[in-house]
Amino acid sequence: MAEPASDGQEKTEEPTPKRLEKAKEDGQIASSKELFVFSTLFVGFLLYLLLLPFMPNILMEWASLFRFSGENGLQDETFRNLSSGFVFIFWKSVIFAFPLLIVVILTQMTMSGSINWSSSALAFKGNRINLLKGLKRMVSVKALVEMLKAIGKVVLLISAAVLVFAWQSDTLLMSQHTHLFGGLSRIGDVFLLLLIVFLLVLAGMGIIDVIWQQYQHTQQLRMTLQEVRDESKQTEGSPEVKAKIRRLQMTAGSRAKQRKAAMESVPTASAIITNPTHFAVALKYEVGSPGAPLILAMGRGLQAQEIMEIGKTAGVTIFRNELLARALFFAGEIGEEIPPPLYAAVAAVLAFIYRLNKEEDVEAPDVDLPDEMLFDENGKALS
């Protein structure tokens, strides 16, 4: 059954990678005490086997710490032996402690997949000292499971020990009929067998506990459907925003295609009206054709310079008129006819260019524009 969230919704969804990563940052990772117990005991057992040939020398070194000749003074020998004893204990402890430390780190890496260091897990949390929450944790299902695990572990280990001693009872009883070292050897064999059985029991419990802890960890991090949606919005943006971005991208792509097509059509233009450098509008008109002149391309700044360069290369006549260039740029649209209020002005310009191309001696026309077609360089009406 899915665990209910604080808002009443059930946590039915598997935790997302972002949720798992956030849990790691907060120090919330799966961990198995039984696996730690097994791994440390197993490594300790291997160290015991490796150091077994050196045990006589170690025991002799330890025994030497309790010999006092009195030749150099009993007090001096006592302090010297105490100092040697501390050094002996320290280095022998390091031999066991260092491998155990490594195996603890590797065990946690096996559980979580990496070494996890979380500073937030060390931070003070006031809710941890809440008496009611503390009592709730003590009587929770998790606490009950932990208690049953502890009882089960004790029962299994005691049962395993009883079975081993019952199985090896003849060996233990016969130890009294042999010499001292023979009896100690038999007891050592039984002790070794007992350790192996304990390791097998702990290995089985460790595997079961790892599966349980992973299940519990996943259950605690499960999310409601609304939490998954909210996280998706935070990560990828809301559907409305994404749709708006797609529209803008499509618009930008369409404008880029339109601009490219417009630039390709500039060489076929009848004239280019400029400002003289800030604006450029390419017009096309076939004499005798119905309709008004078409706007093939227009631009400002660098785009205007590009239109004029293409026009010069193609031999298109460039006519400079500041107000007309602005009017066409701000009132017209690429691919459409020029605005009706500009018919007369554009007709006069095209007629001048037509006669000029015929190599007639003509003067540039005075272009008069309606008041509503007068703009400054920012597209603001001058009237």
TrEMBL record:
The chain crosses the membrane at residues 35-55, 86-106, 143-167, 187-212. Gene3D superfamilies: secretion proteins EscU. Keywords: Cell projection, Cilium, Flagellum, Membrane, Transmembrane, Transmembrane helix. The keyword Transmembrane helix applies. Residues 1-25 are annotated as: Disordered. Residues 8-25 have a biased composition (Basic and acidic residues). SUPFAM superfamilies: EscU C-terminal domain-like. It holds the Pfam family Bac_export_2. PANTHER family: FLAGELLAR BIOSYNTHETIC PROTEIN FLHB (PTHR30531:SF12). Belongs to the type III secretion exporter family. This is Flagellar biosynthesis protein FlhB. It comes from Lacimonas salitolerans.
